[in-house]
Automatic annotation (TrEMBL):
Domain of life: Eukaryota
Taxonomic lineage: Eukaryota, Viridiplantae, Streptophyta, Embryophyta, Tracheophyta
ATP-binding as UniProt keyword: yes
Molecular function terms from GO: ATP binding; protein serine/threonine kinase activity
Keyword Nucleotide-binding: yes
Domain (Protein kinase): residue spans on this chain: 25-291
Protein name per its UniProtKB record: Protein kinase domain-containing protein
Database matches in Pfam families: Pkinase
UniProt keyword terms in alphabetical order: ATP-binding, Nucleotide-binding
Single GO biological process annotation from the record: cell surface receptor signaling pathway
Gene Ontology CC annotations of this record: plasma membrane
Length: 344
């Protein structure tokens, strides 16, 4: 490995190091697969890491790519997955991230939908606030970093359900070569589909969709392909928004806060997006709402998993299933296998 001079936090890894750490990319090391590549769990220098394979880049752009990654490695925020370095000795760049145990917000939402346990409004708003603060930090840097694929699967949940935004490294790859939009259906800003030009307000739109998921418990696209965004906007106009809400968080004492979150989500989803709030303002409002007295009145009960184990289905969706009658607490010490799609 080689440290880039003047940038102690950035490491250029050798091809042999990466191959050894992943046992020549053995399938047993895979912890996530998605549209942007495969993620492997590995040990480098005695440290657990997640190694992500990006898409190929033009040879002439490799030095520019390294310069951009050096900037990403300087990002230091408690709610952002740390990028440690890369290896450019393969056809496609390999990005090396810190390894984050536990699961993703996507998986937490899926478990909540199955009513396996109760996630309070306060916990949802805290995770949202931490995620918004992370995106606001990326947007506020002297060399702003735009995520481009904000979604629950890219928000990891560390011990204590602390949010860590991931998968922003590949967004540095040259935008001018795009022929299809980045992002995930259901979360893509309509403005971006028209322009193919990534801006901060695209991330704000995608985050607005996440707020709707946290409030309603519904997926961004129904089986009939109807978007949650359009359902929400219709309900707000018709005064039927309460019918969309997740019954687990509907409580008279919290309706004032829920309404304010809904209004905030509406502002994030405005099209065209010129009047959308900056992520810093979104984060500030969410932090304030998460600390509201009527929200804090309901502490988060322990997330007890009734004999649930993680099953890798070979896709980007992960599930839990009943294995025994034993129970455990959702934490690093849980005897259940707490794997995740790292830095997808």
């Amino acid at each position: 490995m080689m440290k880039v001079e003047g940038n102690a936090g950035f490491t250029l890894y050798d091809r042999q190091e990466i191959e050894t750490a992943t046992n020549n990319f053995n399938k047993a090391h895979i912890v996530g697969e998605g549209g942007q590549g495969t993620v492997y769990r590995a040990m480098l220098g005695g440290t657990a890491v997640a190694i992500k394979m990006c898409k190929e880049i033009d040879e002439s752009r490799k030095m520019e790519f390294v310069q951009e990654l050096v900037i990403l490695c300087r990002v230091n925020h408690p709610n952002i997955v740390k990028l440690l370095g890369c290896c450019l000795q393969f056809e496609a760049p390999m990005l090396v991230y810190e390894f984050v145990q536990n699961k993703t917000l996507q998986e937490l939402l899926d478990l909540q939908r199955s009513r396996r346990f109760h996630v309070t409004l306060g916990t949802r708003l805290r995770i949202a606030a931490e995620s918004a603060e992370a995106l606001a930090h990326l947007h506020s840097l002297p060399h702003p970093i735009l995520h481009g694929d904000v979604k629950p699967a890219n928000i990891l949940l560390a011990e204590g359900l602390v949010a860590k935004v991931s998968d922003f490294g590949c967004s540095t790859i040259d935008e001018s070569t795009q022929t299809v939009p980045k992002g995930t259906p259901g979360y893509i800003d309509p403005d971006y589909i028209l322009e193919y030009q990534l801006i901060a307000k695209n991330d704000v739109y995608s985050f607005g969709v996440i707020l709707l998921e946290l409030l309603t418990g519904k997926k961004p696209l129904s089986k009939e392909r109807k978007s949650l965004t359009s359902m929400f906007q219709e309900a707000m106009v018709n005064g039927t928004f309460r019918e969309l809400l997740d019954s687990d968080i509907v409580d008279e004492a919290s309706m004032r806060v829920i309404h304010r979150v809904a209004v905030l989500a509406s502002r994030c989803l405005v099209v065209p997006g010129t009047t959308r709030p900056a992520m810093a303002l979104v984060a500030e409002e969410l932090r304030r709402l998460a600390l509201a007295d009527e929200v804090q009145r309901y502490p988060q009960p322990p997330l007890v998993l009734e004999g649930l184990s993680f099953v890798d289905t070979g896709s980007t969706i992960s599930i839990w299933y009943d294995e025994s009658k034993t129970s455990g607490v959702y934490s690093l010490e849980n005897k259940a296998v707490l794997s995740t799609e790292f830095a997808r």
